[in-house]
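// run 5 | inverse folding | seed 20
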């Protein structure tokens, strides 16, 4: 029986969500195959891990999605789930990820960057776009620090909020028609889902993701759209060097699809998007946990 260390928590802004993910994995893991132990990152001692064990990385945000824990585990030759240090860093840094998408001719909403070295000119043609803008921290997750603004009049306040989470800030043209997500598991794309956020939230923010009962996640019937989403998602996943499992998020403006981001440790409770996509693909939650662990052993 293989030992599985379910690693969660730390000091990330998403530590509470991480704990929910870890507890859910621990509750549903197949104990006929695995012997699980829950460990908070604060209490994690890499030299205590037995050879042949695997760390199931359930840390969302900083420490888990930015490549830090992957680097430590790789250096100690310890098995772990999901993508390696380099690919996690590629995805965690939104500006770097945007550049990778563009280099690979993959669609993504147009953007500009605000930082200490790159000041924003509010009179540039970029701000003539009528669809509004998302203002995002360059490095953060769960939509924390993100604002949706209709015009440049609220740009200063939105940048100030994003700066609380990241020095560099991404200002991105908003695609307002639809949102989709595609899970990737062991080289295959799962069934795409459409996200219908709580209409009272304005966009798929932290509350819409984790607290609202009004947010809907629905199956798609358009086979052509599903095939296109899967094809683009796999290319985006591979272009970032990702492996085993993750999620690619999309927006649509009525004419064009755009990739928002690639998530290397997406939410993983039973009600989260990735397990729901797996369920739509005929994979139950326990099977999904097993497939991620066994797939990660094969890639080690």
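// decoded
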């Amino acid at each position: 029986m293989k030992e599985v260390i379910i690693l969660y928590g730390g000091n990330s802004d998403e530590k509470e969500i991480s704990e929910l993910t870890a507890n859910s994995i621990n509750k549903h893991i197949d104990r006929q195959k695995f012997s699980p132990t829950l460990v908070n990152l604060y209490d994690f001692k890499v030299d205590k891990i037995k050879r042949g064990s695997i760390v199931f990385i359930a840390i969302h945000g900083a420490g888990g999605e930015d490549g830090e824990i992957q680097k430590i585990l790789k250096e100690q030759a310890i098995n772990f789930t999901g993508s390696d240090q380099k690919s996690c860093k590629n995805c965690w840094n939104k500006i770097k990820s945007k550049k990778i998408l563009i280099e690979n001719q993959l669609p993504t909403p147009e953007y500009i960057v605000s930082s200490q070295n790159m000041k924003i000119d509010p009179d540039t043609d970029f701000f003539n776009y009528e669809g509004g803008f998302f203002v995002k921290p360059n490095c953060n997750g769960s939509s924390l620090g993100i604002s949706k603004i209709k015009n440049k009049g609220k740009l200063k306040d939105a940048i100030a909020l994003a700066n609380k989470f990241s020095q560099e800030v991404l200002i991105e043209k908003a695609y307002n028609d639809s949102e989709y997500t595609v899970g990737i598991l062991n080289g295959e794309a799962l069934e795409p889902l459409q996200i219908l956020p709580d209409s009272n939230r304005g966009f798929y923010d932290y509350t819409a993701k984790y607290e609202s009962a009004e947010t809907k996640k629905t199956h798609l019937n358009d086979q052509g759209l599903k095939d296109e989403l899967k094809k683009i998602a796999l290319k985006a996943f591979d272009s970032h060097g990702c492996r085993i499992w993750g999620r690619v998020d999309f927006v649509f403006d009525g004419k064009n699809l755009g990739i928002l981001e690639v998530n290397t440790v997406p939410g993983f409770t039973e009600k989260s998007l990735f397990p729901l996509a797996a369920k739509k693909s005929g994979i139950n939650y326990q099977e999904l946990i097993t497939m991620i662990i066994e797939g990660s052993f094969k890639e080690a």
